[in-house]
Amino acid sequence: xxxxxxxxxxxxxxxxxxxxxxxxxxxxxxxxxxxxxxxxxxxxxxxxxxxxxxxxxxxxxxxxxxxxxxxxxxxxxxxxxxxxxxxxxxxxxxxxxxxxxxxxxxxxxxxxxxxxxxxxx
Length: 121
Fold this sequence. Notes:
By secondary structure, this protein is mainly α.
Protein backbone atom coordinates (compact mmCIF):
# COMPACT_ATOMS: atom_id res chain seq x y z
CA UNK A 1 0.00 0.00 0.00
CA UNK A 2 1.44 3.32 -0.96
CA UNK A 3 1.44 6.48 1.02
CA UNK A 4 -1.19 8.24 -1.12
CA UNK A 5 -3.66 5.40 -0.65
CA UNK A 6 -2.91 5.32 3.01
CA UNK A 7 -3.47 9.10 3.34
CA UNK A 8 -6.69 8.80 1.35
CA UNK A 9 -7.96 6.07 3.60
CA UNK A 10 -6.96 8.01 6.68
CA UNK A 11 -8.79 11.09 5.35
CA UNK A 12 -11.91 9.00 4.74
CA UNK A 13 -11.67 7.50 8.21
CA UNK A 14 -11.21 10.94 9.73
CA UNK A 15 -14.20 12.18 7.75
CA UNK A 16 -16.27 9.20 8.90
CA UNK A 17 -15.11 9.74 12.50
CA UNK A 18 -16.18 13.39 12.20
CA UNK A 19 -19.58 12.28 10.91
CA UNK A 20 -19.87 9.77 13.76
CA UNK A 21 -18.93 12.45 16.27
CA UNK A 22 -21.56 14.77 14.76
CA UNK A 23 -24.16 11.99 14.91
CA UNK A 24 -23.29 11.23 18.53
CA UNK A 25 -23.48 14.95 19.36
CA UNK A 26 -26.90 15.23 17.66
CA UNK A 27 -28.09 12.14 19.53
CA UNK A 28 -26.83 13.65 22.78
CA UNK A 29 -28.74 16.86 22.00
CA UNK A 30 -31.85 14.86 21.25
CA UNK A 31 -31.46 12.88 24.48
CA UNK A 32 -30.99 16.09 26.44
CA UNK A 33 -34.11 17.57 24.83
CA UNK A 34 -36.03 14.35 25.58
CA UNK A 35 -34.84 14.45 29.20
CA UNK A 36 -36.04 18.05 29.49
CA UNK A 37 -39.40 17.06 28.03
CA UNK A 38 -39.64 14.09 30.37
CA UNK A 39 -38.83 16.35 33.31
CA UNK A 40 -41.54 18.73 32.16
CA UNK A 41 -43.99 15.84 31.78
CA UNK A 42 -43.06 14.56 35.25
CA UNK A 43 -43.64 18.04 36.69
CA UNK A 44 -47.00 18.19 34.97
CA UNK A 45 -47.91 14.74 36.29
CA UNK A 46 -46.91 15.79 39.81
CA UNK A 47 -49.04 18.91 39.46
CA UNK A 48 -51.97 16.85 38.18
CA UNK A 49 -51.58 14.39 41.07
CA UNK A 50 -51.65 17.27 43.55
CA UNK A 51 -54.74 18.69 41.86
CA UNK A 52 -56.40 15.27 41.90
CA UNK A 53 -55.60 14.98 45.61
CA UNK A 54 -57.17 18.37 46.22
CA UNK A 55 -60.22 17.40 44.18
CA UNK A 56 -60.56 14.15 46.14
CA UNK A 57 -60.44 16.10 49.40
CA UNK A 58 -63.07 18.50 48.10
CA UNK A 59 -65.26 15.59 46.99
CA UNK A 60 -64.88 14.00 50.44
CA UNK A 61 -65.91 17.31 52.03
CA UNK A 62 -68.88 17.53 49.69
CA UNK A 63 -69.89 13.96 50.57
CA UNK A 64 -69.74 14.83 54.27
CA UNK A 65 -71.80 17.96 53.70
CA UNK A 66 -74.38 16.02 51.68
CA UNK A 67 -74.59 13.40 54.41
CA UNK A 68 -75.19 16.18 56.93
CA UNK A 69 -77.89 17.63 54.70
CA UNK A 70 -79.52 14.22 54.38
CA UNK A 71 -79.54 13.85 58.16
CA UNK A 72 -81.08 17.30 58.56
CA UNK A 73 -83.71 16.53 55.92
CA UNK A 74 -84.62 13.34 57.76
CA UNK A 75 -85.02 15.30 60.99
CA UNK A 76 -87.12 17.93 59.21
CA UNK A 77 -89.29 15.18 57.74
CA UNK A 78 -89.72 13.65 61.18
CA UNK A 79 -90.62 17.02 62.70
CA UNK A 80 -93.03 17.71 59.84
CA UNK A 81 -94.73 14.40 60.50
CA UNK A 82 -95.09 15.29 64.19
CA UNK A 83 -96.47 18.74 63.35
CA UNK A 84 -98.92 17.23 60.85
CA UNK A 85 -100.11 14.82 63.50
CA UNK A 86 -100.62 17.66 65.99
CA UNK A 87 -102.47 19.75 63.39
CA UNK A 88 -104.69 16.73 62.70
CA UNK A 89 -105.52 16.41 66.39
CA UNK A 90 -106.26 20.15 66.60
CA UNK A 91 -108.50 19.85 63.54
CA UNK A 92 -110.33 16.91 65.14
CA UNK A 93 -110.75 18.95 68.33
CA UNK A 94 -112.22 21.86 66.33
CA UNK A 95 -114.59 19.46 64.60
CA UNK A 96 -115.70 18.15 68.00
CA UNK A 97 -116.18 21.71 69.32
CA UNK A 98 -118.19 22.59 66.20
CA UNK A 99 -120.34 19.48 66.65
CA UNK A 100 -120.88 20.28 70.34
CA UNK A 101 -121.73 23.92 69.46
CA UNK A 102 -124.24 22.76 66.85
CA UNK A 103 -125.84 20.40 69.39
CA UNK A 104 -126.01 23.20 71.98
CA UNK A 105 -127.52 25.57 69.42
CA UNK A 106 -130.24 23.01 68.67
CA UNK A 107 -130.98 22.65 72.38
CA UNK A 108 -131.09 26.43 72.85
CA UNK A 109 -133.44 26.74 69.85
CA UNK A 110 -135.76 24.06 71.29
CA UNK A 111 -135.65 25.69 74.71
CA UNK A 112 -136.45 29.13 73.24
CA UNK A 113 -139.27 27.60 71.21
CA UNK A 114 -140.67 25.90 74.31
CA UNK A 115 -140.42 29.17 76.32
CA UNK A 116 -142.26 31.06 73.57
CA UNK A 117 -144.96 28.39 73.45
CA UNK A 118 -145.38 28.48 77.19
CA UNK A 119 -145.40 32.31 77.20
CA UNK A 120 -148.19 32.36 74.65
CA UNK A 121 -150.48 30.13 76.73
